[in-house]
Amino acid sequence: MRKYNSSFKTAFLSEAGNKLKNNDYFGFVELDRYACYVIADGITEMRDAESARKAIEVVVNAFQEAPGMGKGRIRNYLRTANRELLKGESYEKMKASVTVVVTDYAKLRYGHAGNTRLRLYRGGRLFHSSGDMSLSRDMAREGKLSDDKIARHEERNNLHSYLGKEKLNPFVSRKIKLADGDILTLYTRGIWENVDEGELSDVFSEAGNEPAEECDKVEDLLLSRQPEDLDNYTFAAVYVDKVFRDPERRKKTKRIITVSVAVLLLALLAVLLVFLWRRDRAGKRGNMEQHFSNTETYMEDNNFIRAKEECGKALELARKLRDREAEKKYNAYLACLEAVIRADDSYAEGNYGEAKDAYLKAAVRDRYADNSSSAYIEKRLSQINDYEQVLDAISLGDSLAGHGSYEMAEEKYQEAKRLAASIYFDDGRKQALDALDKLYGEWGAVKEEQEEQARKKAEDETAAAELVRQGDGACAEGDYDGAMVFYLIALEKYTGMEDGVRIAALNRKIVALNEKQEEVGARMDEAKALEEQARMFEEENDPEQAKIQYQYAKAVYTELGKDNKANEIQGAIDILDSRLAQMDREAEKAAAGPDGGGNGENGSTEGTGTVSGNNS
User: Fold this and answer.
1) DSSP bridge pairs for 238
2) Most distant CA pair in the chain: distance in Å?
3) How many CA atoms lie within 13 A of 454 on its CB side?
4) For burial by CB atoms within 10 Å, which of 84, 204, 214, 611 has the most?
5) Averaged pLDDT for residues 336-344
6) What is the 3-class SS of 310-378, one letter each residue?
7) How high is the pLDDT of residue 61?
8) Tens digit of pLDDT for each residue in 219-239?
């Protein structure tokens, strides 16, 4: 009697748009106690694909076989349809986005997978709406994309849940109480990609009494846009003119109480035992489902520790209930949560390499947990990749600093600091700043040492240059031994400075000086030989030849700049000159005869002339 004591009016339109065939479908069935409304959007690009039609047929049949609006029932309708689509033998698997609504004419509950949409209007305003299971919707939920950009975003059809997927995880809503005058709308992406939510709200803010009229208005609004590539589109509207109200609710309640009391009195013990057993199981199952629901909620909030606690409780209850399917599912979730928590621990400790491996392992386990943590894991892996870039830059800077490339090391540390600041990596930024402080300390010490070495080198170069200058002066003065001493000391200093150019130049000077010294030595030997020969002539009483040899020797010493030796030889020459003068006087006396001394006048005159001639 529910159907006949309520008033629900349904209208819909479904067109192919600019495509060759319409792969959208809408279907509904209204039974006495429950009604079911289903809309599907075929995802495959195959022209003859009938995934949407197949999905609706299976859902409607499953509903008619076991009508109800419990979460488990609705989830089962969708999973039954999913199994049928997976059986397809086409080279391209059948896939579809589906939304199913079940109502008992007083409340409704819906479930969906994909990006078909549901909107419930009350009093001319949007009262409730479903959410897409797409990457674009996730980005909007995270604040990375505004809601009005979803309809044209490139990831709007990148779905993480849809019929035809191996691991289906549909969304099932809570029960929503209906009111007289509510309007329920269902539509596919051909509508929402071209007509925004505000325009749809305007249509239903002044809705008439016939849903077909509003469907036509929506189609007119869509076609007025004249989209170039209009996809299949389907729009359905259900007008809730009157909800069901049970007139015998109080009588039924009283009758049930009376019957229950009678039954309890007649079979109190047996019924009590059965009741307690069933209540215990029902309570356990309810608690199990609640714990798992809490698990999903905590996972959505990235609180994996609390999620693990709740999942562990759900698993324990599943074992007590001997629910193998639930036990397997909860085990998979628990393994995933434990893997994520281990990865988070490594991440929190700053062991990013270890954390990266742990997150990759967690991603593998997450596949068996309906990819419930995939977004979180991907985000963490992306952060770790950014952190590793910072740490790699710091490590490269350390290596460069270790090899003395301080300027390049500074560039790497500065690069790490900028990158860490841009991704809010406080620990990495601190490491970069500490590395810079350490670098500047080492760099300053090295600069001081280099400056000290440069100063000492300059002093050594100045001292060595002064030695070379003194050696050149000594050489110019003929002091070849002194010059050699200066050159050798300067050579030692240039060798210590490893100044190859000046070492080569100084070696050339030393070689030339050695040659000069050899030449001087030969001339000295020649002079000494002349001296020795002069002495021999002196011993042989031949002063004339002795003087000549001394004069040759003096000339050599004078040429060599040996003034002391030249003066010494000159003294010997002077002595010889005196001897020769004496010999001349004696010879003149002998030539004058025995009476030369008696002729006083003549003798005196001749004697005076001889002496004068010798003096001159």
Assistant:
1) 10, 184
2) 206
3) 6
4) 214
5) 92
6) HHHHHHHHHHHHCCHHHHHHHHHHHHHHHHHHHHHHHHHCCCHHHHHHHHHHHHHHHHHHCCCCHHHHH
7) 96
8) 999 998 888 888 899 999 999
- With a pLDDT cut of 90, the percent of the chain lying above it is 32
Dump pLDDT digits (tens) for 547-560: 888 888 888 888 77
CA–CA distance, 249 with 147 (Å, rounded to integer): 44
Contact 336, 373 (CB under 8 A): yes
In angstroms, the Cα distances linking 18 to 223, 285, 323 are 11, 50, 49
Domains and CATH numbers, the chain: 3-247 (3.60.40.10), 252-372 (1.25.40), 499-590 (1.20.58)
The structure's pTM equals 0.44
Pairing of strands 117-122, 35-42: unpaired
Q: What strand order describes the sheet that includes 125-129?
A: 7-15, 233-242, 182-187, 117-122, 125-129
In the 8-state DSSP scheme, what is residue 163? Answer: B
Question: How far apart are alpha carbons 455 and 496 in whole angstroms?
Answer: 15
Angle of helix 211-224 relative to helix 197-205, nearest 10 degrees, comes to 140
* CA–CA separation, 408 and 402 (whole Å): 11
Write the burial class of residue 383 (CB in 10 Å: 0-12 exposed, 13-18 middle, 19+ buried).
Answer: middle
Output the CA angle 75-96-293, nearest 5 degrees.
30
- pLDDT for 116 beyond 90: yes
Residue 177 banded pLDDT, cuts 50, 70, 90 = very high
State the Cα–Cα distance between residues 158 and 150, nearest whole angstrom. 12
Q: Indicate the burial class of 197 (C-beta count within 10 angstroms; 0-12, 13-18, 19 or more).
A: middle
- Residues 545 and 534: their CA atoms lie apart, in Å, by 7
Taking all residues of the chain, what is their mean pLDDT, rounded to a whole number? 85
